[in-house]
Give the backbone structure.
Amino acid sequence: MIVSIASGKGGTGKTTVAVNLALALEGAMPIRFLDCDVEEPNAHLFLHPEIERSEKVSLPVPVVDESKCNGCGKCARVCAFHAILAFSSRTIVLPELCHGCGGCALLCPQGAITESPKVIGEVETGRAGDIRFAHGRTGIGSPLAPPVVKAVREALDKEGLGAGLTIIDAPPGTSCPVVASIKGSDYCVLVTEPTPFGLNDLGLAVGLVRELGIPCGVVINRAGLGDEAVSAYCSREGIPVLLEIPYDRKYAECYAKGGRLVDDFPELRGALKGLWRKISASGESGAEGEDGRREMGEI
Ligand code: SF4
Ligand code: SF4
């Protein structure tokens, strides 16, 4: 099963939920953790993986042979990203804008375009205890996150999916890197906070996962901090609130020190195992109707 953990905005506790869910389930089943937040990966700060392999991610960027180019302009017309400009005297490639689609080389009637790899990021794989781990980083100045996300998602594929759970820590927001991260997931957990900003961005995230046809549920972090508007929204939209994590200074202090919540607070370990039970049950009967607040009341 592939479960992505996403949020409409940064700073909601998405990585905290993803990391601690993995730790709570470690040993109970094979776990693969993919940190797809490639512009700001930080799951490794909590999981401390031992990195075994590192690979560059590159894109094929066109190179124009001026001696063959006749300035016809076909390459510029086909490029949706304005990454190649054709003038009568010269054809110029703007590598920062190129998405490596290969269209210009395919269509050039003169065979004047070849391709050269341009490094846009890096993927590292390893192990954190019993958890298989992969994360990626975009190169400095590289605006292209989706290909690096794709490389992270493929990094552990050669080991085979097998049984168990793949947890994807998605980037915040609702842009292309998020789509690349969560597409194909069996379930998406949306982490939010009970504030007007949290509610606004949760609405955007729900719109995205519905567009992608991914079932979703909500984790409300820092519950008690704001108001009940997020709960009311979920109720109106028929979205299950899977878990509420109370607003508590001790959790924030643990996070700030790079600590693992499930190690210091056994009640959260139990709550995250409960979260997994609801997610796994959702495939059979739907997670609707489960009440995360009741679960936290028990712990
Ligand atoms: S399509 Fe080929 S020949 Fe035409 S301008 Fe581009 S590089 Fe030159
Ligand atoms: S490879 Fe694709 S994105 Fe890059 S310049 Fe050519 S057409 Fe544009």
The chain is about 35% helix and 30% strand.
